[in-house]
Amino acid sequence: MQTAIATQDYRLPPERVPETLVETLSRDERDEYIHQLKQLLREQNAVLVAHYYTDPDLQLLADETGGYVSDSLDMARFGHESDADTLIVCGVRFMGETAKILNPEKRVLMPDLQADCSLDLGCPIDEFNAFCNLYPDHTVVVYANTSAAVKARADWMVTSGSAVDVVRYLVDNGEKILWAPDRYLGEYVQEQSGADMVLWQGSCIVHEEFKGRELAELKQQYPEARVLVHPESPAPVIAQADVVSSTTGIIKAAGELEADTFIVATDRGIFYKMQQAAPHKTFIEAPTAGRGATCKSCGHCPWMAMNSLTKLLAILKSGENEIVVDEDIIERARLPIKRLLDFAARRKQAIYGNNDA
Ligand code: 13P
Ligand code: SF4
Predict the structure, then answer these.
(1) Helices 72-81 + 327-352 axis angle, to 10
(2) Mean pLDDT across the chain
(3) Which of 80, 132, 227, 322 has the fewest C-beta atoms under 10 angstroms from its C-beta?
(4) If you take atom 5 of ligand 2, which residue's CA is the nearest one?
(5) 264 Cα–ligand 1 center, Å
(6) Which mutation among 95, 150, 204, 266 tests ligand 2's pocket best, with the greatest number of atoms within 8 A of CB?
(7) Are 121 and 203 in contact (CB under 8 A)?
């Protein structure tokens, strides 16, 4: 099978990447904020839907208030199934938009509307549309990390946990694939599925910085360690993995594998849940820039870091930062997202015999 690539490079230049700023509060401030937040969430029938890369305090608050902490697929699923009036998405913009698309009748707020994603920013709709027009006979498959407008142009949306399965299914139906925006995940999916694919050339500024050579050196220092890798990482890093998986899959592997030590190639925010899943195990960050340091945000997403207790409190008090998506876009973007949710539900049904597993 062949892989064609879009000629233009859509990786985000460093000047468009913000600094990673992590909020620090005193113990008293933190406790007081959490106390007020719990009350406001209850009064407003609001729930937190948080990603694993966000501040541990936000994850803890979500867990303690009937909210949810997960990967992008399950965040979409939970938001869709929750009966809260307000969903507060602690993550990045595309996660808030997906929640709104699936729940147009609900109020969806985010602590910071500037919390974006280099993959989304590196896939502008007009250029993506022109790219799709070059391949009218291809099925358009986009990663969740895209704008609502890009999803509205797609046939399928996939997440890191579902991309290989969905593309294999499409290959079995004889379909050729146009993939966007992550070049590394696209290469991995192509290699796993054997699909005939054209690839958009975007990247995640966090995962792209994991380095193959430095990882090989680290593995020599810890020969007993298992290597867990998110598939947004470059091929030389993926090639050394014991497990390549979504964030949920990485946490599961930490709990289930026999090893005591793990080298982890994904955002360090995930360590909070990994430590809960396997309290006595040791987790080591995979090396990032190494000798050729170029990243401002090594190992932690600057946009995920924009979610903080202070901003959460501010939006619950003011009602600001509501996610608004055009009705026409909602209508069209819902189809590729629903296709994935239905596909994932059918898979679960086939594997576990019910939808609750
Ligand atoms: P997951 O769906 O695996 O959580 O990935 C989302 C993401 O943005 C990873 O960088
Ligand atoms: Fe986007 Fe990468 Fe941040 Fe995930 S870690 S939200 S892919 S920039």
Answers:
(1) 100
(2) 93
(3) 322
(4) 301
(5) 14
(6) 204
(7) no
Q: What is the pTM of this model?
A: 0.94
Per-residue pLDDT at 356? 42
| DSSP count for the chain of H helices, then E strands | 15, 13
Spacing, Cα 319 to ligand 2 middle (Å): 26
13-27 residue pLDDT tens: 888 899 888 899 999
The pick from 19, 142, 304 for probing ligand 2's pocket by mutation, whose C-beta has the most ligand atoms within 8 angstroms, reads 304
Q: What is the pLDDT of residues 168-215, one digit of tens each?
A: 999 999 999 999 999 999 999 999 999 999 999 999 999 999 999 999
Cβ neighbours for 76, distance < 8 A, ≥ 6 positions apart:
95, 98, 99, 102, 144, 337, 341
Q: How far apart are CA 312 and CA 37, in angstroms?
A: 8
**Residue type at 194?**
G
301 lines ligand 2 (CB under 6 A): yes
**Cα–Cα distance, 176 to 162 (Å, whole number):** 18
Looking at residues 279-289, what average pLDDT do you find? 93
Q: Which domains does the chain have, with CATH numbers?
A: 1-204+301-357 (3.40.50.10800), 207-292 (3.40.50.10800)
Report the alpha-carbon distance of residue 354 to residue 351 in Å, rounded.
8
Ligand 2 in contact with 75 (CB < 6 A)? no
Q: Which amino acid is at 260?
A: D
Q: Which residue has the higher pLDDT, 8 or 6?
A: 8
pLDDT tens, residue by residue, 18-72: 988 889 999 999 999 999 999 999 999 999 999 999 999 999 999 999 999 999 8
Candidates 142, 139, 152; CA nearest to 120 is 142
